Amino acid sequence: MLRDTHLIIDLNDLEHNLNSIKTYCDKNTLIGAVLKANAYGHGVKYIAKHLYTLGIRRFLVATLIEAIELKKHNASYDVMIMGHTPDNYLNEIVKYQIVPTLFSLEQAIQLNEHGKNVDQVIRIHLKIETGFNRLGLQITPQAPAIVKEINALSHIEIEGIFTHLALKDRSSDIKQIQTFQAFVKALERINIIIPIHHVCDSIGMVLYPEYHMNMVRIGALLYGLESEEKGVLDIKPIMRMVTKPSQKKFLEKGETISYGHRWQALENTQIATLPFGYADGYPRQLYEKGFVSVNNKKYPLAGIICMDQCMIDLGDDDISLDAEVEIIGPQIPVSQLANLAMTNKNDIVCSLSQRLPRVYTKNKQVIYLNNPLVGDHYDN
Ligand SMILES: *Cc1c(COP(=O)(O)O)cnc(C)c1O
Description:
alpha/beta, eight-stranded mixed β-sheet, 21 strands, 29% helix, elongated, binds pyridoxal-5'-phosphate
């Protein structure tokens, strides 16, 4: 692995979460696995590979590069981009057989031309604006006619139609869903029948089982990043982040630590240096707030967090240089770090950098290793 600081991802727990999601959804509802941002920091290559072996066929990402990455791993993955693809890269959609999200006639016409050039019909999903006001075709009086024109393009197949919920409260979400459904109905009245409809992300899926439609788009719950809305679902976090101390030292009362000497020992104390820092994605703002766990006991970070290292205050305790230090895991849940860093759980995990080796275990055995900086990938 070449480094003490690394991530351990438990594929049994991933399967467990997937099974909880499957149990909650109708068996005809497609489960789209959201793999954007390096699978929320969990390492997209082996998360995708494992989900594929578990029968998941639809993978969703945010950007073209993420989609191409997945297609290069396995051309038979069905990969959809949920974000915008710039006009000048639409040819890549055709080249790699990716399913883009479109929300304008202009792009549909351009994509249709690319499809014509190679005589391929391109599947697309249409995104509809229902109140989030981020991305989507606005529901103007002309909107059905626009969709009709897109639908009539020879090399475009509208496979899906979707919108995204703001999740403010039930009444505003239902209003968005009803706006969406009314638009789908309006399309059906002019004989545009789109097979796949979807509105729910993880929270939407839990809150609105009556609105799963034909597909749900699930990220956070797969990784066990549960929210208060997880409701009846049995979900486990699948990642741990661990390290080992690089050095220990005894400091006398009054001695200081790290940049600016901002931390000062109030008593004689034992300090350990740990080889992770903000360049690994650990939030620098956890200065004076963060802690790690060793042998089920918590120790606070001491001093400003450096790019690659930080220190912890062990007080009167001693730990072995071989001790496993938990940075994220059962003792230090992502939710707690997120609260302390005043952000959300997704932000914490998707920031975990490529510099961290990721190992994947199944039945407690390591089956994959992903260490992309040195080209180390293995399947065991
Ligand atoms: C990221 C994203 C999702 C997944 O959200 P989770 O809450 O992680 O399940 C679903 N839909 C869209 C459009 C997204 O951008």
